[in-house]
Structure formats: structure tokens, C-alpha cells
Design goal:
Blueprint (H helix, E strand, L loop, with lengths): L32 H4 L5 H17 L25 H7 L4 H14 L4 E3 H9 L8 H11 L6 E3 H13 L2 H12 L9 H15 L9 H15 L9 H9 L2 H7 L7
Antiparallel strand pairs: 1-2
Helix pairs in contact: 5-6, 6-9, 8-11, 9-10
Length: about 260
């Protein structure tokens, strides 16, 4: 078996599931669950968010044989991740867990990186009744830390580690940054409506009950007013955090990925 850049052959990885935790509700995607907590359509959303959780779980059950070196198409440029030791230090995953996640990552992204178009394509598979274009782009931009137009395995892994095993503050900060479209350090009602609209658009027209644009604006505005404790027209991270940790449903959504891996 080939050893790719020190990653080892998958014969080195013990087969069988990594211990999992509770199988409950999103994160709507490895990445979007907490943001979706501020939206409705819970029944439809729950079915789809579960499929995302299941997909992430399956990454840990895909310890299949790696192809021999001669089977790889050398005409395709292949990105090689940094060493396992570095990834273990920058995430909360073990060596074996990282190898298994990488095995699954390569299945969808054989070159080792994912482009914006490919990311949208993969993300859209979870929401076939809607249009995930806008929301997928927003999530992609959050993951593309070096802003080079692609998401590497390292960037993907860091986000997965944070969402699954990060502290509540880390998760809250990530979702806050998602809503903070312009990086201003605070949220406006317009930025929240824009994200909320992209989530509803992604869920599709067949949610129960049906969701209309006016409903999105009304729902998000109502939440924004509750968050804006001093009524100054903006929501700071401290206001956002206070609102989220004191809401049982939102706090539950932030815990969806805890121990799921």
C-alpha cells in the first residue's frame, strides 16, 4: 500500500466506527446548523440536517483501501495536506480520525481541495428542493481562510473540529461571523435578513408551512429586536451570545455536533 506524504496506508487504520454521541438535530450542515436555529421550517429542516450529520458520520466508516500509487492519474494536480502531527495540534481530532476524514474527503474531492462550484454542488445535494447557491457561497467564504478561491483539507478539518468539539463560545463566534457579512464586528437587521433569506431559499418552497419573503423578514426582524438589548440598532457579539445561550432551542442546536464524531 502506498504512503501518501506520510499519511500512511489505510491498512494502518483500525476499521470500525469511532465512538459517536447522540444522533439529534444541526446543524443544517457541518456548517450551517447553528445559523438555521434562527429560522423556522423545523420539520423539513430536521430531516435534511440529519442527512448532513449522517454524511459526516459516514466519513468515519469509510476506511477503505487506498489505491496503489500507480493507479493514480498523475496528470491531475494533487494537493498534499500538511503532516498529521500538525493537523492533530491544530484540531481536536486523533490521528486515526483525521485519516478517516481524509479518506472521505478524497472521495468527493480527489485533488485534495474543493472549489466554490464543487462546494455548492456538494452542499446542494442536502437540499434538493431548494437553491443552496447563496448560502453555500457564504459558508465557502467562511471556510476559505486564505481567500485563494478553494478550501483545502486543512481548512475543512479546522472548521469540522470547531463545530464538533469546539467550545460554545467558538461556535457562537463562527456563526456570528457568518451573519457579519461585512466583517464590521456587529450585526445589522439587513445582514441577518440576507442570511435568513438564503437559508429559506435553500430549504425550498416545499417547507411546511410554506415560507414567503415577507415571513422571513418578519421572523428575522423579531429575533433581531430581541437580540438588540440596548435598542441601538446593532447587535454586538456579547448581545448575540447572551441571546443564544439563554434560548434553550438555540443552545440545543449549537450542541448538535458535540461528540457526533
Amino acid at each position: 500500500m502506498a504512503d501518501f506524504g506520510g499519511w500512511g496506508s489505510y491498512e494502518e487504520v483500525e476499521e470500525g466506527p469511532v465512538s459517536t454521541g447522540h444522533h439529534h438535530h444541526r446543524a443544517r450542515s457541518s456548517v450551517g446548523g447553528a445559523a438555521g436555529s434562527a429560522t423556522g421550517a423545523r420539520g423539513e429542516e430536521r430531516l435534511r440536517s440529519n442527512s448532513v450529520v449522517d454524511r459526516l458520520k459516514r466519513l468515519f466508516h469509510m476506511a477503505k483501501e487506498d489505491p496503489d500509487l500507480e493507479d493514480i492519474d498523475l496528470g491531475v494536480a494533487r494537493y498534499v495536506p500538511v503532516s498529521l502531527e500538525v493537523l492533530m495540534k491544530s484540531t481536536k481530532f486523533s490521528r486515526k480520525e483525521i485519516q478517516l476524514i481524509y479518506c472521505g474527503f478524497k472521495q468527493d474531492c480527489p485533488t485534495g481541495v474543493v472549489s466554490a462550484d464543487k462546494f455548492r454542488e456538494l452542499y446542494s445535494q442536502f437540499f434538493p428542493l431548494g437553491d443552496a447557491t447563496v448560502f453555500a457561497r457564504q459558508i465557502f467564504q467562511m471556510m476559505d481562510q486564505d481567500m485563494d478561491g478553494s478550501v483545502s483539507f486543512e481548512e475543512f478539518l479546522v472548521v469540522m473540529s470547531m463545530l464538533s468539539r469546539g467550545s460554545i463560545d467558538e461556535k457562537l463566534q463562527w456563526v456570528f461571523n457568518l451573519y457579519d457579512l461585512n466583517g464590521e464586528g456587529f450585526l445589522t437587521v439587513d445582514s441577518m435578513i440576507e442570511i435568513g433569506a438564503s437559508i429559506y431559499e435553500m430549504l425550498g418552497k416545499y417547507t411546511d408551512p410554506p415560507v414567503h419573503e415577507a415571513t422571513v423578514r418578519e421572523h428575522v426582524t423579531r429575533i433581531f429586536i430581541k437580540m438588540d438589548s440596548n435598542a441601538d440598532g446593532i447587535v454586538t457579539f456579547s448581545e448575540f451570545k447572551e441571546f443564544c445561550v439563554n434560548d434553550d432551542k438555540i443552545r440545543h442546536n449549537f450542541c448538535v455536533f458535540n461528540s457526533v464524531l
